Amino acid sequence: MTRPPLPPAIEPAELVWHDGVPESERFGDVYFSRDNGLEETRHVFLLHNHLPERFSQIPEGGSFVIAENGFGTGLNFLAAWQAWQSHAPVHTATLHFVSVERFPLTRQDLTRALALWPELKALADELLLHYPPLVRGVHRLVLAGGRVRLTLFFGDINDAWQSLDFHADAWFLDGFAPARNPDMWLENTIRQVRAHSKPGTTLATFTSVGRIRRALMDAGFRMEKTSGYGRKREMLKGILEAEVPVQLERPGATAILGAGIAGCTLARNLAERGHPVTLVDIHGPGAGASGNAQGALYVKLGVEFNDQTELALTSLTFAQRFYGNWRGQHWHPTGLLQLAHSPQEEDRQARFLQRNDYPQDIFWPVNQEQATALAGVPTQSGGLWFPRSGWLEPGNLCKALADHPLISTAFGVEVSRLLPCNGQWHISMAEGSPIVADRVILCSGHLSPDLIPVKGRFRLKAIRGQVTHLPTSAIMSPKAVICGNRYMNPSLGDFAVTGATFDLHDNNPLPATGSHEENIRELGSMLPSLFSSNTDKPSAKDLDGRVAFRCTTHDYQPVAGPVFDGEGACLDDLYLFTGLGSKGLSYAPLLAEYLADQLTGQPACLPANLVKRLETRRLYQTDMAVS
């Protein structure tokens, strides 16, 4: 038996094909009925969970959650998505589908399996376009313009149910037959099904095995046998009978303070779920740290695959999918090269490659010759090639994100104070009338603590960063992004952006000649051939550039979640989303997705171990008290 791969990779399913139908070599069972897998799914899962009629009753801005214990070929998911297309309400609502797979199919096998269903081709093509790399953990796929959200957990089923936060409206208890795959049907797993259910949750399963029925009854479900599909005479369906709670009212007005990449991605996310937002900023979208003409989409993955590395990886792959909506506009997926630009970095990359196993659709190592060919300029070393990364136009992207019918804007106003009053937040302005909101999210970078009505010190800091605009005529422009001790973008018209400085103790908001000199010097040491000769290097005093202040935390990890006072009590309906540092373009889309999940009461896209990384309480000093 082959040794399991190193983290974060996960073993793919091993398939054999009999008469065109995929079968698991490991479990010796088919993925779907040989009679008609799609019709079996419709009969067992859609019909007996009463999905068409339940879909039509979802309120505006609401959601419906289906959970499944074996993703397999994705046939059940596509069938549910197809039914959602036909029966969902005309107003904005979201279908969430949460599924687990210990041995996921490769993209090639998934493509072949789904080709069996021509009527699902359009949906299958979109799923395949967004299908994640085969790495352990949680993957959130946003489909159908945000009306369908798939949460895929690649890993053990018990790990999934313990780390994911959701409550299902309906369960698809699928997977291989209990006799062939008993781990999926253990009593502990069924207890987790109950824990992730709510009053009125329904379930259906193809099996009618007595011990499964009894275990579900012991968990609180009222179970009954009913007619199965095809050769299976019987199946099970059930409902969790309990008093159905009163439907919560739809959340009221939401205000987001700060229109950088964090605020704009969050505003857009909430708006696309049908929740109106007011976006407030003293300047406008993309005017602060997110206002550079170019920004590279990359993270630096740790040598050890720990929670910090997992958060960075998950953020990167989600961002690559998210920005695909703006391909050819504000997103340029040229690929990105992380150079082994020094002996220290060469050693770090060697240790990283030795200890980890990543699929090639995330990155692969390249030598100097390959790096030069990919980058389009001579390099002094090899490195890591990220084929799905590239560069963005952050300022223009923020403007595009803020352009949505459900996003109201209040630009050119300076917020002076936040005051809780009668269950709402009053946002006072330096001039003019206050804005009243039911909840507020602070996305104001290092200025956020000034607005939180809590005394004490927050461990947030501003770090000055200056980028330099290099004239295209003075450089050999690369055809991909190159990162090392500086990053270098392909040209955007008549200039290309490089940078940025990392000035811990400098508050100068204006571009400085010394910072331009530093950028040119560091870039020249990383890519000596970028300038044809030393005499051709542009003079620092003649260059344009831009200064922005990154906001980071004491541990250089972002924060996203509710605000707490100095005694650990939650301040109702006040949230913080900041501390993204120099990786805001990479972190913002996923963390906006996570916060929007929280704010709307929908399934979380992050597992518990990564949620812990984002805790806001870690920023507070112990001597803090409510003001």
TrEMBL record:
One Pfam family from the record: DAO
Names of the cofactor(s): FAD
Domain (MnmC-like methyltransferase) ranges: 118-239
SUPFAM superfamilies attached to this UniProt entry: FAD-linked reductases, C-terminal domain, FAD/NAD(P)-binding domain
Domain of life where this protein originates: Bacteria
Region (FAD-dependent cmnm(5)s(2)U34 oxidoreductase): 257-627
Documented EC number(s): 2.1.1.61, 1.5.-.-
Catalytic function, reaction form: 5-aminomethyl-2-thiouridine(34) in tRNA + S-adenosyl-L-methionine = 5-methylaminomethyl-2-thiouridine(34) in tRNA + S-adenosyl-L-homocysteine + H(+)
Subcellular location: Cytoplasm
An individual GO BP term: methylation
Domain FAD dependent oxidoreductase residue range list: 255-597
GO cellular component, one term: cytoplasm
UniProt-recorded Gene Ontology molecular function terms: flavin adenine dinucleotide binding; oxidoreductase activity, acting on the CH-NH group of donors; tRNA (5-methylaminomethyl-2-thiouridylate)(34)-methyltransferase activity
Chain positions covered by the region annotation tRNA (mnm(5)s(2)U34)-methyltransferase: 1-241
UniProt keyword annotations, A-Z: Cytoplasm, FAD, Flavoprotein, Methyltransferase, Multifunctional enzyme, Oxidoreductase, S-adenosyl-L-methionine, Transferase, tRNA processing
UniProt key word Disulfide bond: no
InterPro entries for this protein: FAD-dep_OxRdtase, FAD/NAD-bd_sf, MnmC-like_methylTransf, SAM-dependent_MTases_sf, tRNA_MAMT_biosynth_bifunc_MnmC, tRNA_MNMC2, tRNA_S-uridine_synth_MnmC_C
Assigned protein family: In the C-terminal section; belongs to the DAO family. In the N-terminal section; belongs to the methyltransferase superfamily. tRNA (mnm(5)s(2)U34)-methyltransferase family.
Role played: Catalyzes the last two steps in the biosynthesis of 5-methylaminomethyl-2-thiouridine (mnm(5)s(2)U) at the wobble position (U34) in tRNA. Catalyzes the FAD-dependent demodification of cmnm(5)s(2)U34 to nm(5)s(2)U34, followed by the transfer of a methyl group from S-adenosyl-L-methionine to nm(5)s(2)U34, to form mnm(5)s(2)U34.
Annotated HAMAP family: MnmC
Protein name: tRNA 5-methylaminomethyl-2-thiouridine biosynthesis bifunctional protein MnmC
Native organism: Marinobacter maroccanus
Highest classification ranks of the organism: Bacteria, Pseudomonadati, Pseudomonadota, Gammaproteobacteria, Pseudomonadales
